[in-house]
Design the sequence.
């Protein structure tokens, strides 16, 4: 999340004399998305005032996923300060799979998958497991059995912005609790 947030604050600009409660709200929102305020390689101003009564300051901010290897790895081009944007971010392309295989919970295919696994496992010969190599053979065979049963019983589905495979009853419960209380802690829990 990046842009001109137009928020003056001493949290990111040590030369600015005040702290704003709006900044707290911005940081809470970022935290909800597991984003963290990133710092440039070179701390530099991002806003230059045209009038002498205003501060030159830092109002262009970048928030990155808190586990990102690029968290504090960008550069502010101070010589570009008359242009509208003067922050360069290196973003690598990422492939996001839009299809996956699944078996619907409590379906006939799920029962078939489980039956296939049970019958295959019953046929394993494990009485003569005497060494590491024997165990590895059984594990490899088990992997093949699971893969075969999965491919036989699962189906491909397209992942869209309307897909909600992650939503469960706890999500509904937590959302309802937040709607009743409007508390920040309940929102974070949701």
Sequence:
């Amino acid at each position: 999340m990046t842009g001109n947030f137009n928020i003056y604050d001493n949290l990111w600009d040590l030369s600015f004399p005040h702290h704003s409660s709006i900044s707290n709200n911005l940081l809470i929102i970022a935290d909800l998305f597991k984003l963290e305020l990133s710092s440039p390689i070179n701390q530099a101003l991002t806003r230059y005032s045209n009038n002498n009564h205003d501060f030159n300051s830092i109002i262009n901010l970048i928030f990155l996923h808190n586990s990102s290897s690029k968290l504090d790895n960008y550069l502010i081009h101070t010589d570009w300060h008359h242009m509208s944007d003067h922050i360069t971010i290196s973003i690598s392309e990422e492939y996001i799979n839009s299809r996956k295989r699944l078996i619907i919970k409590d379906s006939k295919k799920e029962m078939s998958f489980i039956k296939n696994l049970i019958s295959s496992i019953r046929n394993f010969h494990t009485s003569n497991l005497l060494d590491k190599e024997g165990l590895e053979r059984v594990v490899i065979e088990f992997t093949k059995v699971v893969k075969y049963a999965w491919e036989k019983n699962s189906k491909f589905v397209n992942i869209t912005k309307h897909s909600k495979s992650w939503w469960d009853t706890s999500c509904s419960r937590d959302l309802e609790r937040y709607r009743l209380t409007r508390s920040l802690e309940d929102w974070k829990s949701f």
Remarks:
- Strands lie at 2-4, 35-37, 60-65, 75-76, 87-88, 99-102, 155-158.
- The radius of gyration is 27 Å.
